[in-house]
Design brief:
Blueprint (H helix, E strand, L loop, with lengths): L1 H13 L9 H18 L42 H5 L1 E2 L2 E2 L9 H14 L1 H4 L8 H4 L11 H4 L3 H10 L13 H19 L7 H22 L1
Antiparallel strand pairs: 1-2
Helix pairs in contact: 4-9, 8-9
Length: 225
């Protein structure tokens, strides 16, 4: 009996221990216990949660649809368009002849760049309506330089870009509102470039124009000789 006790004591003494003082067997038991607690906390509620899939019917609502209409008056984030002029080109339902923000040189440069991208295929770079696809058989749009379009308010060009007109489809999904206004401003520049008078030129620039005109005339006479 005494020998058996001594052997048992020796065997316990030989069991390896961790730095914390736990034997390998004790550590194994502790890990198994922790794993059991972890598994007890794992549930399938997030995987099998009660929900309706898209277009799945339901008998909870009288109309049988699981999808619900937005609450009346709901406005999506970023879609609160209370500025009538900026988003429609109109004031009190009438096309406006003023811009919703001051037009700077940078705006005109941006307007020209956007015009060249989206408008020149039909309207060409001068706005005369002889773009490349027109040369290939597409219906020709009216020139921006006819009296009717020169007299149109600037809001007209904005709303045409927004809603489309005739064979032209809407560009609202391609050009943001601010850039539509910049393009409209550049259209005004094109119109002025083809219909300006000397009185529209600043006095400081008129002398340069006179010199250029004289030089052009002289070159023409020399070629004629």
């Amino acid at each position: 009996m005494r020998l058996r006790t001594e052997l048992g004591s020796r065997n316990r003494a030989k069991q390896p221990r961790t730095r914390s003082g736990l034997s390998a067997r004790g550590l194994h038991v502790a890990c198994m216990g922790a794993l059991a607690l972890l598994l007890a906390g794992c549930r399938l509620d997030m995987h099998l949660q009660p929900k309706y899939l898209p277009y799945e019917p339901t008998d909870f609502f009288a109309d049988g649809r699981s999808e619900r209409q937005p609450v009346p008056g709901t406005v999506a984030r970023g879609q609160l368009r209370v500025d009538e002029l900026f988003y429609t080109g109109k004031e009190n339902g009438v096309e406006s002849n003023r811009f919703p923000f001051p037009i700077t040189r940078a705006d005109l440069e941006r307007g020209r760049e956007r015009y060249n991208v989206y408008c020149t295929p039909c309207h060409d770079y001068s706005g005369s309506g002889r773009g490349m696809i027109v040369q290939r058989g597409f219906p020709q749009p009216p020139s921006y330089h006819i009296a009717r379009l020169r007299d149109m308010p600037v809001g007209h060009f904005f709303q045409v870009m927004t809603n489309g007109f005739g064979a032209m489809y809407s560009y609202a999904a391609r050009i943001e509102p601010a850039d539509r206004w910049r393009i409209a401003a550049y259209i005004r520049v094109l119109q002025l470039s083809q219909n300006a008078t000397l009185q529209d030129v600043p006095e400081s620039e008129r002398a340069k124009l006179a010199q250029q005109s004289a030089a052009t005339t002289m070159q023409g006479e020399q070629k004629a000789q």
